[in-house]
Amino acid sequence: MKKILLLFAYLLFSSAVISQEFKREKYNFNSDWKLKTGDSQHAESPVFDDTNWRKVTLPHAYNQEEAFEKDIDNHTTGIVWYRKKFKLPKGIKDHKIFIEFEGIRQGGVIYVNGQKVGLHENGVMGFGFDISTIVKPFPEENTIALRIDNDWKYREIATNSTYQWNNTNFNANYGGIPKNVFLHITSKVYQTLPLYSNLKTTGVYVYPSDINIQNQNAIIHAETEVRNEFETAKNIEYNIEIEDIDSKKIASFSGEKTTLLPNETKIIKAQSLVNNLHFWSWGYGYLYTVKTILKVDGKVIDEVSTKTGFRKTEFKNGEIWLNDRVIQVKGYAQRTSNEWPAIGMSVPPWLSDFSNKLIVEGNGNLVRWMHVTPWKQDIESCDRVGLLQAMPAGDAEKDAKGEQWIQRINLMRDAIIYNRNNPSIIFYECGNESISEEHMQEMKDIRNLYDPNGGRAIGSREMLDSKVAEYGGEMLYINKSAHIPLWATEYSRDEGMRKYWDEFSPPFHKEGFGPLYRDKPAEDYNHNQDRHAIENIIRWNDYYQERPGTGKRVNSGGVNIIFSDSNTHHRGESNYRTSGEVDAMRIPKDGFWAHQVMWDGWVDIEKYRTHIMGHWNYAENVIKNIYVVSTAKKVELFINGISQGFGKQSNEFLFTFENIGFKKGSIKAIGYDEQGKILSEDSKTTAGEPSEIKLKLTTQPNGFLADGADVALIDVEVVDKNGQRYPISNDLISFAVEGPATWLGGIAQGPKNYILSKDLPVENGINRVLLQSMIQSGKIKILATAKGLKSAELTFESRAIKTQNGLSTAIPGVNLSPNLDRGATPKTPSYTVRRNTVTIASASSLSNNNDTFKSYDDNELTEWKNNGNSNAAITYTLSKPSIVNECVIKLTGWRSKSYPIRILADGKEVYSGNTAQSLGYITLALKPILASTIKIELIGTNTEKDGFSNIVEVEANKDLDLFKDPVAVNATGQLRIVEIEFYEKIK
Q1: What is the average pLDDT score of the chain?
Q2: Where are any strands of DSSP class E within 455-494?
Q3: Dihedral angle sign, alpha carbons of residues 379, 383, 387, 388
Q4: Which of 69, 490, 546, 937 is catalytic?
Q5: Which of 93, 693, 937, 941 has a CA between 20 and 30 Å from the CA of residue 1?
Q6: Cα distances (Å, whole numbers) of residue 320 to 314, 581, 709
Q7: Which pLDDT tens digit goes with each residue over 697-737?
Q8: CA distances from 350 to 60, 550, 716, 842, 908 (A)
Q9: What's the CA gap between 144 and 123, in Å, rounded?
Q10: What local confidence, expressed as pLDDT, does residue 969 receive?
Q11: Which residues fall within 8 angstroms of residue 572, CB to CB, at 6 or more apart?
């Protein structure tokens, strides 16, 4: 009996040791799902017969095939069920089991083995459940089922409130489970998951402090929420290991030992100075793996690996600082769905990298995701490619109240907790328009509670005079500040399809021609490529002129809306939005290359570039304007080596060569500095007659994975006999596919946009198609044919992926390499100071003298104005006698009003004329006279004519530029100054 008792005690002890030594596992839970549209009775039951349901691999929105075939209003909505059978690994018993969803759309009830485990409804955020007591151990089978409703009018069950961001204008409705799912298995002493909704847990938080960029070191902090669900207290050791990009351990340190009582949860911490750090930066996605390790009795009981990067940010003096260098925002406001034709948002991680890296290659440095939080896959992708992010919570286009505001608060809380270790996020956005100061403070309090050390500014669109927000900026207009950074959250809203080069190229689309939009002409939504690119150049120059280095009050840049053509909110000829600088398949338009030229620098131009718009394959009798975008001071054009002279420069970067006659051969543009030194050049040559089809395959680095979710990109070009693309081809290509792959196809202008069609035209000589893998591996052959062209064939294989009982250890994206192309943050300044600000000491006027300070108070929501039609003058006393050569001024009604003014320096006239309309500020050149006072006076009658009647969606009601003053439009004798600045040349 004694031996039996000893054996029993030994077995108990061994079991406890084994339990304590167990290290957590994270499983890919995407395989072996089934789905069925429409409601089904008792579909949550394990014995429900789903034999005839569709088999899918997640991520998979049930209506994703409609992407770009239908406009956003017509996406299929309603009830859908997802089901899956799975088994736990052998030996898993008396452990913690968690299910993590990166997100569903919109609201869903989750069942495990027929039992309801919870509800999730916001349609955006990741969430999870503890299913430890419900799942059955191996070899028993488990069933998980979700009933999901993606109705546009979905109402939160507890409150009967709709969700503000579940909106047909902004948030493409890819319903069901369009994101990844994971299964976590841990010991009963474990580090929690960063999933606050349902689980109420916050996970691991890693951040640097005391960052020294020059010395390449920082104190690295790790904080982890830990829980003990054993029935006895546990003494916990907390160890940290940091591995570099090559998986080499560079640091290890420990926190204090901690005792956790049964069912106790607490946050434990450790920190240490770490040397020889590589700091994450724009185009330099250097990431570390931080392992947070729990030990009990010297045995590892839990280990979490957090992929993160370390960087230093500051938001001061109206500027954004990254790693001690000022950076001006240059990027895109992109729809969060970030979708592709026929697959929607449910793409594999490598394709997220492909898209997001294109922004960086086009010299964009920031993406502002619109309206709702991006999914984790895009956030991690931006980490890898080195693309800064502005992360919203959820919004439509206004502040909220009641239950909808509570929903926004809860979403921001969950999003911050889930994403606070991702270094690419540097802005938290609280609203797509301004919110109240009280609401801003609530959001800021959440940031301060859950991410107090992440180096992220929190703000909202507008918020120009907020005392709480840490950044702001209007849509389209130009803002400046000497305090918090102000950058445009959306600008350049015009549209143009890739199909249309110009009026001289097939299909000979007349500029601006297209259907009405809201019963009005829609020229701005139906541009040709050249005009669309020119609009982008004009609009960016507004921000470039007021960049850091141009005074104490500066503009911190802006994001162009949008990067890739989107399935949302169309206005032009197509049933989708064509504002993108690349099309829906990420093929660049001329606007992409224009931005690449203008944006090549942190603030000032650091690398000179030149790009000739369009192509060089016209009919012999064509005479047209040639447009060149360049960062040179002057540009010369050559045709077949013969100079055509220098282009007319406008808007800083645009050079126009008028009435150039086409001649077969080559065209070259050379950019020079003021002294005639060559800075950059670009050339194009005439392609020969179209001869054949060319195919090019792109897959992830590990090849085409046979997991049912991976995709392959295939570029299809029409080329001449020398392999050069024929840029005016619109030939119809027919495709045939053999082997284990699903045809997704591409997109082009035509019936149903050719979505899922195996007959697809190239546009401007090129198009791109998608194939999706099946769960069977094997050889795949693609044949492309077209009338009059030599066919092309492509053969490749898909690679088998191991899954077992519905689980896989192959975590999506975990092995993708970071982009380090731009290198570490330069140690040199990012701009040269162009001029010195002359400080205003005081101002006086015979009219509203107590308000004169409002014209130079660094607040664009205040103004000085004279009373009525008299005393329309104001005098500024400078802090010291100065030679003022420039006046920068923002006048009320800046978009539509012209003011006849005179400027006097110590009584001598230095300027007289009518001010130009603008999207914010104008610069007036003054005769340089040493003076102590500057007087501005109105010398005539204001005129009212919208100088931007053709620019789209810029506050047509004039609320902003006329301060919501209904009589201001008709006022003809008022001088109204929002902000004024004086500058002197640098000696």
Answers
A1: 94
A2: 457-459, 488-491
A3: positive
A4: 490
A5: 93
A6: 6, 25, 39
A7: 999 999 999 999 999 999 999 999 999 999 999 999 999 99
A8: 16, 40, 20, 58, 65
A9: 19
A10: 64
A11: 495, 497, 514, 515, 517, 522, 525, 526, 578
Tokens of residue 80, six digits: 């859908």
CA 195 from centre of chain: 23
Task: Supply φ then ψ for residue 720, to 5 degrees.
Answer: -85, -175
| Interior angle at CA 676, CA 671 and CA 682, nearest 5 | 20
Distance (Å) of CA 504 to CA 442, 511, 618, 625, 729: 56, 10, 7, 11, 13
Q: Name beta bridge partners: 914.
A: 900
Least Cα distance to 616 among 502, 777, 776, 515 occurs for: 502
Q: How far, in Å, CA of 75 to CA of 65, rounded?
A: 10
Q: Are 82 and 104 in contact (CB under 8 A)?
A: no
Overall pTM > 0.85: yes
Is 490 one of the catalytic residues? yes
DSSP state letter for 71? -
Confidence of residue 267 (pLDDT cuts 50, 70, 90): very high
Backbone torsions φ then ψ of 113, nearest 5 degrees: 50, 40
Is residue 440 pLDDT above 50, yes or no? yes
Rounded alpha-carbon distances, angstroms, from residue 319 to 211, 322, 825: 19, 10, 17
What are the counts of helices (DSSP H) followed by strands (DSSP E) for the chain?
A: 7, 58
Q: Is the pLDDT of residue 877 over 70?
A: yes
CA distances from 416 to 194, 420, 447, 692, 706 (A): 9, 5, 7, 52, 34
Quote helix, strand, coil % in the chain, to nearest 5.
15, 40, 50
Picking from 90-94, 638-642, 842-846, which range would have the lowest pLDDT averaged per residue? 90-94
Report how far residue 472's alpha carbon sits from residue 822's, in angstroms, rounded to the nearest whole number. Answer: 28
**Whether pLDDT at 9 is above 50:** no
Q: What is the mean pLDDT of the segment spanning 119-138?
A: 97
Q: What are residue 251's phi and psi, to 5 degrees?
A: -160, 150
675 CB-contact burial (10 Å; exposed 0-12 / middle 13-18 / buried 19+): exposed
The pLDDT tens digits for 197-210 are: 999 999 999 999 99
The pLDDT > 90 percentage for the chain reads 89
State how far the Cα of 563 lies from the Cα of 781, in Å rounded to an integer.
32
d(CA 884, CA 901): 17
End-to-end Cα spacing for the chain:
100
402-419 helix and 376-385 helix, angle to the nearest 10 degrees: 40
Whether 596 contacts 363, CB under 8 Å:
yes
| Per-residue pLDDT at 867 exceeds 90 | no
In angstroms, the CA 226 to CA 255 distance is 13
What contacts 188, CB < 8 A, 6 or more positions away?
19, 94, 95, 96, 228, 229, 230
Q: Which amino acid is at 180?
A: N
Residue 275 CB burial class (10 angstroms; 0-12, 13-18, ≥19): exposed
Radius of gyration of the chain (CA): 30
Query: Tokens in use for 136?
Result: 């059955």
| Residue 930 buriedness (CB in 10 A; 0-12 / 13-18 / 19+) | exposed
Which pLDDT tens digit goes with each residue over 630-657?
A: 999 999 999 999 999 999 999 999 999 9
DSSP assignment string, 343-406: TBT---HHHHHHHHHHHHHTT--EEEEESBPPPHHHHHHHHHHT-EEEEE-B-SSS---HHHHH
Place of tokens 């400080």: 839
Res. 972 pLDDT band, cuts 50 70 90: confident
Tell how far CA 779 is from the center of its chain: 36
> Nearest CA to 415 among 450, 387, 383?
450
